[in-house]
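Anyone up for a design puzzle?
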């Protein structure tokens, strides 16, 4: 398949997030395969596989959600894992950079 995005764990962050009201919207066709998700990047013709907690992060977006809500849910899904929220944010930033998720208000 194509590229893989995954993290080893995901958790809470205590600092306020200045862009927590930013909306996240998936833009790529996807296929949910139980424990991984395949996204199709139509601009490059390639597939991106989401594995591990990246799957959880992507599923939390749904059709459209606020960034702050997604990160709060990540913290709830992975309690006691301090790096969870920063890792989730990195996954989301990567998906946005690849054009597979769009940020907007």
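Challenge accepted. My sequence:
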């Amino acid at each position: 398949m194509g590229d893989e995005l995954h993290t080893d764990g995901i958790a809470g962050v205590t600092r306020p997030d200045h862009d927590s009201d930013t909306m996240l919207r998936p833009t790529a066709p996807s296929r949910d395969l139980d424990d991984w998700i395949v996204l199709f990047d139509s601009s490059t013709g390639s597939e991106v596989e989401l594995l591990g907690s990246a799957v959880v992060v992507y599923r939390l977006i749904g059709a459209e959600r606020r960034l702050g809500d997604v990160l709060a849910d990540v913290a709830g899904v992975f309690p006691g894992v301090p790096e969870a929220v920063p890792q989730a944010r990195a996954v989301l930033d990567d998906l946005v950079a690849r054009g597979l998720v769009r940020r907007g208000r």
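A detail worth pointing out: The CA atoms of residues 41 and 90 lie 19 Å apart.
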